[in-house]
Amino acid sequence: MHINKLIYSLAIVASLSLVACSNDNEKIPGWPWKDNCDTSEVVKTEKPRFVWIDAGGNFQRFANSKENISSDLQKVKDAGFSGIIVDVRPTTGDVLFNSSIADKLKRLDVWEGSQYKWIERTAKWDYLQAFIDNGHELGLTVYASINTFVGGYLCPYGLGAEGFLFRDESKKVWATVINSASGLVNTMDLLDDSSDYGAKFLNPSNEDAQNYIIAILKDLSKYEVDGIVLDRCRYDDYGLMSDFSDISRKKFEKYIGTSVANYPNDILAAGATRIPSVMPEYFKPWLEFRAKTIYDFVVKAKNAVKSQNSKIKFGVYVGAWYSDYYGSGVNWASKKYDTAKDYSWASPEYKNYGYAGELDFMFLGAYAGSNRIYGSGEWTMQGFAQQAKKLLCGDVWFACGPDIGNGTGWSDGGKGSLIPDAINTCITPSNGFFVFDLCHIRSFGYWDDFKKGFERIDANK
What we know:
This protein has 461 residues and is of the alpha/beta class. The chain is built from 12 helices and 15 strands. Strand 14 (397-401), helix 10 (419-427) and strand 15 (432-435) form a beta-alpha-beta unit. The longest helix is centred in the middle third of the chain and has 26 residues, at 283-308. It is globular.
């Protein structure tokens, strides 16, 4: 039985790519800020403004052209942005920088006209270094982002696949095992490109997979980037169905101190994608275990980066929809925030694995529709940003931002007049701002709209 991962992915993981703090927090713009988990406005100061540069969305323009990189970064600077976030490990798992362990990215699938096609990278120059050189010359902050627990990508429409999970059969044991309606199945056995296409995730509990990612991060830390961002540092797009491998079972049973006789039904019924009305015996401890797995890896990754270069800022991208993010196995809140007081699915111990305090910064996707910029609660941009401030409790510098190319109202362009409002609602409760993605600004011609939005913010400081 094939399962369409997009059902869960679109509902819970809207990103398409896309701290105790370090000892040099005083260098982060906006620090210190108010804490105590209130919702008052952050102290007004210069707030950094980042633009995300997705590898796939910009590959056709940048893969083989330093000139295009230079030209677009000048426009980024002129529009009023202060920094860039460059995706250098897309969902194929191959990389756009020099690594001793990961393969260089040679091609990506790109939608052109009415079909997907491969775009080859033939240039020999260092992709990441080109952004560092051009960005720093313009005075831009340069962060590098990696898609973390991924190892391959299955393309739709018969185009094929790319990534080490497809090239190396021995790595199949690293891939996610889902609790499907037809039983436990490794996602590398789900290869119907009409329903199973997309990123192939690694099991976050697999220590070999973890160590592989850590080695990649150490290589990335050798570059003179200002920060490193973990994207997709979470469980598979299948959400609650992942990961139910033997490795996860053994580690979970060690965590709870007993064996689970009826595995996985004592955790979650086969094929379940939502919280059942009656939660199985080990459901809440399972959510704790998954959050702890990600928490422990984030700490491990941070220490690896800092040991290589203590000056590099370390953080993550997450979706701002906290009420659903348990499905991704992530608690991005502060430990000061008691999740169990607001959510029935959380145990009293769930808060112990909130990782905000381990980071230097956090980017939160406030990915609401173009008709839901203002408002309260989740699924409005303003509500996302306000909630993030409450849940982070002052533990970490954070920036919220919209996706201006996907979702309700955004995908067809023509929304330049809304950009200043989107900036305002995201940046006001936050310490900064980011937008996904550069390719949308370019294709829809939003340069002047961002400039006007930033000028309005500056005028009101």
